[in-house]
Structure formats: C-alpha cells, structure tokens
Fold this protein.
Amino acid sequence: MNHIAEQWEGVEKFQARPDDVLIATYPKAGTTWMQEIVDSIMNNGELEKNKRAPTHVRFPFLEICSPPPIPSGVAILNNTPSPRLVKTHLPFELVPESFWEHKCKTIYVARNAKDNAVSYYFFDLMNKCQPDPGTWDQYVERFLKGESM
C-alpha cells in the first residue's frame, strides 16, 4: 500500500505557519546533518538542547504516512507548537503552497549527485524495508534513469 498517496490530500492542504522552518532535501543529501545545524542555531548553540528528543521528533517529516495507529507527519505537525521545524523530501512543485504563501524560511540542501548516489546505495543495502539495490552498476543505471527511490 502506498500510504503517502492515500493521505496526499492532507499533505497538499497542510497549513504552514509564518514562523515554520522547512528543510527540503533529496533523500540522503545531508538532511539529518542540516537538521542538527538548524536546531543548534534555534537553540543559540546550546547543544544539550539538541539532545531533548530524537531528530525525527524535533523535525517531523511532513509527508510521512504509516498505517494507523501511527500518526502521519501532518497530524504530528498540526499538534506541534510554533516555531515548527519541518522536514520534507518533496520536490519544489509538491511542497504545500501554504509554505510559499506565508513566506516560511526554507533551507534547501543539494548534494553532488555522485555522492548522493553512493550514500543512497549503501543506505539501501542496509535498509531491509527497501528492495535489494542489486549491484552498484545496476543501481547507478536505475539512479541515472530516475528509476530508484
């Protein structure tokens, strides 16, 4: 089942707030690294505050959806006090319009595609929730054709 597609309306109609901070990245492009930097800045460099909760709790993942009873990213964000730190892997054209309407601060992280592919390949080797990535050569071919996750 594709839970994101089933719950897409909630993502598409998500209401950003003017003080939201959106971190938008391609997967495996430095998302977690950037989240930690932003959280450190938001906490005036007091690194102990970054330890208050795991990264995925401090930065809810906007489009993540799992089968109930696990709440969606939208549900979590709707119950998160401002200022909210939001993570997304959505491309620009799929980010909810409310982020642009409210002129939310947005941090976009891009990474060299070769480095990104290497990172993603080793992630997929480890991640047993994804199909086997095959050999490196097979993986690169699919990556270049846009056929990988």
Summary: The domain at 3-111 is CATH 3.40.50.300 (Rossmann fold). The chain is about 40% helix and 10% strand.
